[in-house]
Structure formats: structure tokens, C-alpha cells
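Issue 218. Parser rejects a valid record. Input:
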Amino acid sequence: MTEVTRLLDGAVAGDKHAAAAVLPVVYDELRKLAAGHLAREAPGQTLTATALVHEAYLRLVGPVDGARWDGRGHFFAAAAEAMRRLLIDRARARLAAKRGGGRPRADVELDRLPAPMPDDELLDFAAALGRLAAADAAAADVTRLHVYGGLPVEEAGEALGQSRATAYRNWTFARAWLREALAG
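Output the parser choked on:
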């Protein structure tokens, strides 16, 4: 059991010392992950990498019933998902009618995912990814870790217990499926 896993298990069990000790151990990696997420956001983002890490961390080790991580990879996958959800929540809030929503929609180019994306395109992509998850959960999981988590396809597959070939097959399917879903 790695130090990160031991500290995470202790934090989930309610050990305040473990909860306090885990953040310094994983902080730099979480900050790199957050910076990667924010680099793909549209210009003018007011959220900082530090704020994103802190919000995601609070969601991860806050009062969650029975949350457990099967090691470091699982924790970072959960952190990537928490950051993704925070960014989507912020995009929805910015697009709300009281915040100037209702702008015309633009088509999402799947090849543009690493580039900054306007809020409405981010929400369209998130909705399409949700529909993909209903059609093929394994392909959606690889896509989430690759696109939002910044993991290479091989590492995303490894974190999910998929072989390299299966991870690439799922990613190829997901790309094609999402292109078609976003084009229509």
C-alpha cells in the first residue's frame, strides 16, 4: 500500500491527521492536472488552478459516505472527474439566463478538445459524453480520463483495468460516436 493510499484511507475513515497530510503529498500533481483543465477552457476564465484543486479536494475528502480509493490511480481519476464536474457546473452557471445565456450555439469539433472551448460547446460535449456513457460506459470512461483527466489513452485504460488494445478501441469508438452525436 502506497503512502497516498494509506493517507486517503485514513482521511476517508475520519482521521483528521491523515486528511491534513494527504494534500501536501498530492498537491503538485493535482495542480498540474488542474492547470491542464484550465488550459482547455476559454480565455477569460477567472478560476485559478489553486482554487480548482482546493474545490476538487474538498469534494474528494469531504463528508462522503463510504468513499474509498483503490490506490493512487483511482484517486487521481476521481480528482479529474471532480475537476471536470466543477468546470461544467461553472459553465452552466455562466450560461444561465441571468448571466447572459442564450447566445447562439456553435458546433463542437472533436479535434478541438485540447484547445479552449466556449461554455456552450463544453456543455454540448458533456451532454454527448453522457449519452455515450449510456451507449458504451467503457468508451465513455476512457474518454473522460483522456480528455478531462489529461491521461494518455494507455494510462486511462490502465487506470480502468483495460488492456492497451481495448483502451484504444474504446477511444476510437468514442471519437467516432461523439463526432456523429455532435454533428447532428
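Fixed in the parser; the record now loads. The chain has two domains: 1-102, 103-184.
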